Amino acid sequence: MTARETSGSAGAAPGPAPDPESALARLADRHAAGYRSVGTMAYDIIRDAILDGTLPPGHKLRQETLAELIGVSRLPVRSALIQLEADGLVEFHDRRGAVVKSLSVAQAREVYQLRILLETEALRLSMAEMTDERLERLRELGRVADEEQEGAGFIDARTEFYAELYDAARHPIQWELIEQLRLKVGRYMLGWRLVGNDGHRHSHGELTDAVGAGDVGPAVELLRHHLEGVRDGVLAMLEAEPLTGAQPAARRRRGGS
Fold it and tell me: What does DSSP assign to residue 194?
């Protein structure tokens, strides 16, 4: 899976890269209503901005600027950045302050090696305890995830699907480890969809059908094949255009898992 779906029209000339601060201000406006805690709001806005590429890897996160754009004081922004550091999306440097975390090819390869080991075992355990009710829930979540095209809705739908697939309620520590690994390589790639050179795109429904058939071997191999394909696509992208703050926003595409 080395190709990526474009989010614009084929052949269209790329426009100028959007200013991250302007894009963040628009994102903050969409989040402004419905929050009881300014800390939660600041965290959600900055996290979404990192995951959808508004704030690309390597981008310096100035607390004063973020606070002004979001419309809060520096304290909730500082707390949000500390939480995002724990999530693996932000890192602090002595001289540069907080920046969106970048990822090397070697790190990405190691993350996917661990993901394949952990997630295939998680699927084996989950299938041994599968019920008709959980399978039906999984089918519905798979339909929702396949209908979502990109962005925060796609990320949320996919997270719910895999939480059910791996039986997160029964195995919370295992699920926490899986999510941490996904976030380490995710960045704004979490909102991308990778497609193969043959045009095939991973279907959550396809995986659900394999689980529903009850044969562990083929289901595990399908999951392994998907993770290996995503790994190869991510590595190809990192080698071709390293994830740094200098990457033009116009070149970002959607895909991934």
Answer: E
Give, in words, the CATH class of 17-100.
Answer: mainly alpha
For tokens 């191999």, the residue is 221
CATH among 2.60.40.1120, 1.20.120.530, 1.10.3720.10, 3.40.50.300 for 105-251: 1.20.120.530
- Beta strands in the chain, from DSSP E residues, in sequence order: 3-4, 60-61, 90-93, 97-100, 194-195
138-193 confidence digits (pLDDT tens): 999 999 888 876 656 677 888 899 999 999 999 999 999 998 888 777 654 554 54
Alpha helices in the chain (DSSP H): 20-31, 38-51, 63-70, 74-87, 105-128, 132-147, 151-165, 172-186, 204-212, 216-240
